[in-house]
Amino acid sequence: MAVVVFGATALLLLSFAVGPNATALRQLAGGFLWVALLFSSTLALAESFRAETEQKALEGLLLLPTTPVALFYAKALANWLQLLLVGMGLLPVLVILYDPDLARLPEICGILALGSAGLSAPGTLYAGMASQVRAQQVLLPLLLFPLVVPVLLAAVKASSLLLLGDPMGQVGSWALLLLTFNGIFWPLCGLLFGAVIEE
Description:
Blueprint: H1 2-18, H2 22-47, H3 50-54, H4 57-63, H5 68-98, H6 105-130, H7 136-147, H8 149-164, H9 171-198
Helix pairs in contact: 1-2, 1-5, 2-5, 2-6, 2-7, 2-8, 5-6, 5-9, 6-7, 6-8, 6-9, 8-9
């Protein structure tokens, strides 16, 4: 709930920055949704390793008869589900503040799922890496934000098209970019996770 409240606060502040311009608010709703979700994701991802680092449980997990790859996918799937729920929780706030057209809500939820997955895989890898150092709250955004630029571009563009209209049918291309990013980074991050947490 704290992460959802943080995201809702970000949406509120961004709406204040635009001012009482209903047309501009509708046009920017898709982008602002993903900015709020990106900022919220850093809190959620950093928190996903807090218990293990504070109680030295990560070493115990590594001693279990399992592989670091399995630990990564368990963490990444849990983070993906949490980010997806945060995104869904921000949609009512988006409707109240920005009054977008949610006629294509199932497709919007699909883009939320793909975009959240794109944030979750590298975010889990970097959260595991940042949990080994003191300044993890600063290090995680510095590592994560440049890498997920393609996810944000595709998700913002697809969400905006779904909210404002897609006369040329471009949403499929942006969704394909999200699928491609996920198809590359989910296996790659799983392979690298063992080297990150065992150092």
